[in-house]
Write a structure and sequence with these properties.
With about 120 residues, the protein is mainly beta. Helices cover about 0% and strands about 50% of the residues. Strands 2, 4, 5, 6, 9, 10 and 11 form a seven-stranded mixed sheet that branches. It has a four-stranded antiparallel sheet with strand order 1-3-8-7, with no helix packed on it. β4 and β5 form a beta hairpin. The chain is globular, with a radius of gyration of 13 Å. The chain starts with a strand and ends with a strand. The relative contact order is 0.31.
Amino acid sequence: QVQLVESGGGLVQPGGSLRLSCVASGFAFNDYAMGWARQAPGEGLEWVAGISRDGRDIFYGDSVKGRFTVSRDNARNTLYLQMNNLKPEDTALYHCSKGSKWYYREVDSWGQGTQVKVSS
């Protein structure tokens, strides 16, 4: 059974940083592309980042380019999202996702999410 468990969210001031983690289990983590998506209250799902199986191919949403960094540790079955220079508009529920072997947006499993709030 696939499980994706996110952590690392919280309340942070504008300009601050957070590091999200997603621990995966129940599948061969290193065989699948992974992603992060977020959903703000009253808004649709927005893709934040995607990463290939080996970490060589990376995608970022336009709104987070230059501020967020996605990475993975295949030995630890863990996906990360380093978020710097956070803005109030980054406030959202952040979900980790399991993609297909080739594309992070071909999602078959989602984590429950970790809440990020950016406010002074």
